[in-house]
Design brief:
About 30% of the residues are buried. This protein is an alpha+beta fold and about 190 residues long. Bound molecules: coenzyme A. The site of coenzyme A has 18 residues, from strand 4, helix 3 and helix 4.
Length: about 190
């Protein structure tokens, strides 16, 4: 029998969990990989513990089941000789589309970023910009061109010219500074 919604008697349970990567269970990591495979294909399956060190994962649950997830991880940025600590956003996925789960996930991210007063940045495809604008982020086409990944161990610099930016600023106003200014910003994390 399906769920019955009548005025006054319907119940809903939405939960949002912020879990540091080391607290995620194998079952949860496997679940995220299965969903990535379903969305993007097998090559998108990944080792979260290796790629997303120190990340906080956000799990949106509806009636106890994960319906959307995403992460935020610390990224160091150097711009014009000054050092910044921001959050890299990634892995965002709503398992069923068009049910507000994506918006709930992004609202949880904004809640977290405001609490920490941190700037957060994601790089994504043009097709996602409308969504991010609707749910409270700013966007900038080709923002990735203003960033370089500098491998902290080898000093090697990686250029990726294909990606638009999505961001939410804290008091450092870093992205506005980069957009208004000249030159590139160096990150200590490969584009996430
Ligand atoms: C992008 C994504 C997270 C959206 O999640 P969703 O749960 O389907 O979106 P919601 O139901 O919360 O939609 C919120 C609003 O955004 C709109 N929206 C959703 N996707 C959109 C898109 N690609 N472009 C423009 N608007 C979009 C919805 O119509 C809705 O608008 P409304 O306020 O007018 O009703 C989801 O489609 C997804 O997981 N895509 C694959 C993975 C991905 O691309 N992730 C994001 C990049 S990391």
């Amino acid at each position: 029998m399906g769920r019955v919604f009548r005025e006054g008697v319907s119940e809903m349970k939405i939960e949002i969990e912020f879990k540091p990567i080391e607290k995620l269970k194998k079952k949860e990591l496997d679940f995220m990989n299965v969903q990535r495979k379903r969305e993007y294909g097998k090559s998108a399956m990944m080792n979260f513990r290796k790629e997303d060190k120190k990340a906080v994962f956000i799990l949106v649950k509806d009636e106890g089941k994960v319906v959307a997830f995403g992460m935020l991880k610390p990224v160091k940025v150097e711009y014009k000789g000054k050092k910044y600590e921001i959050l890299g956003m990634g892995r965002g996925l709503a398992i069923k589309k068009g049910r507000e789960y994506g918006r709930l996930l992004q609202a949880a991210r904004i809640y977290y970023m405001k609490k920490k007063d941190k700037t957060a940045v994601a790089f994504t495809d043009r097709s996602n910009l409308g969504f991010f604008e609707k749910v409270g982020f700013k966007t900038k086409r080709h923002l990735i061109k203003r960033f370089r990944y500098k491998n902290p161990k080898t000093g090697e610099i990686v250029i990726d010219n294909d990606g638009d930016g999505v961001y939410y600023e804290g008091k450092d106003k870093l992205v506005s500074k980069i957009i208004k200014g000249k030159g590139v910003a160096f990150t200590n994390a490969d584009f996430w």
